[in-house]
Amino acid sequence: MRLGQIRFHHEITAAVFVEGGARPIPGHTMADLIHRSEKEGIPLQELAAQLAIRHAETAEALLPIHPAEVWACGCTYEMSASFRDAEHGTREGMYAYVYREPRPEIFFKGTARVCVGPGQAIGIRADSQFTAPEPELALVLGSQGRIVGYTLCNDVSAWDIERENALYLPQSKVYAACCALGPVIVTADDVGDPYHLYMTCTVTRPDGGVKFSGSVSTARLHRKFEQLTEYLLRANPVPAASVLSTGTGIIVTEEAALGPGDVVSIRVAEIGELSNPAAVVG
Ligand code: DO4
Ligand code: MG
Hints:
Layout: E1 2-8, E2 11-18, E3 21-25, H1 30-40, H2 44-51, E4 70-74, H3 78-88, H4 94-100, E5 105-110, E6 115-116, E7 122-125, E8 131-132, E9 135-141, E10 147-155, E11 157-158, H5 159-164, H6 169-173, E12 179-187, E13 198-204, E14 210-217, H7 225-233, E15 242-248, E16 263-268, E17 272-281
Bound molecules: 2,5-dioxopentanoic acid and magnesium ion.
């Protein structure tokens, strides 16, 4: 089932996306629906099917969830670790170490405050010359790290700030409009094999020219989702309706740094396309 949020009677409302429209679930946001499904012990897709009104509205897909928290993993694909080590010139292979060791890199990406949905502008920090999209598969979590669905995440990152010094990572990662999510959440029973999803990313200039295109399969992800959620939840009871992004396997190089008006489109056939223009923030 494809779930998300729409505007219905002036309210952000959870909805089931169907051919040609969306069936609203009045009185519920996506986070409400996840909480109710946990409380009543009813699988998310069953509860959504029960509560959605029959009539499908023509509606735009909004941010599919206002997440309680967004966390993100790093160096989960070899490509991300080796590119970052090369950028930093770290002799000891700081990023390769994290790629290889059992404990994954997990960082706090923010709350709903920094998230944008399909079509909304992602942020380029005014103090960054090299901001890049990081196209990632994201897990939508119920309580105790249970995976209730999958969505796409753009972990937009100011790479030059991270490259200057690894301790600047939080500033490179967390700022206004640094996280795009969407277009919908596909429930875990409906995504097929999440370790064999083919993801593409293109960056298009304002004149329509393609600045970057790349692809990866989640088969190249070096971790199992359960390992990521297990570490995330160690001594850290992350609330239901949070999101964990699983890391990037597509690396956008400095020549293709985001500029204002560029459009980033991330696509996985089983989930859809998340497209966002970029704009300077701050
Ligand atoms: O270590 C820096 C961040 C890595 C990251 O965000 C990724 O690999 O996706
Ligand atoms: Mg990332």
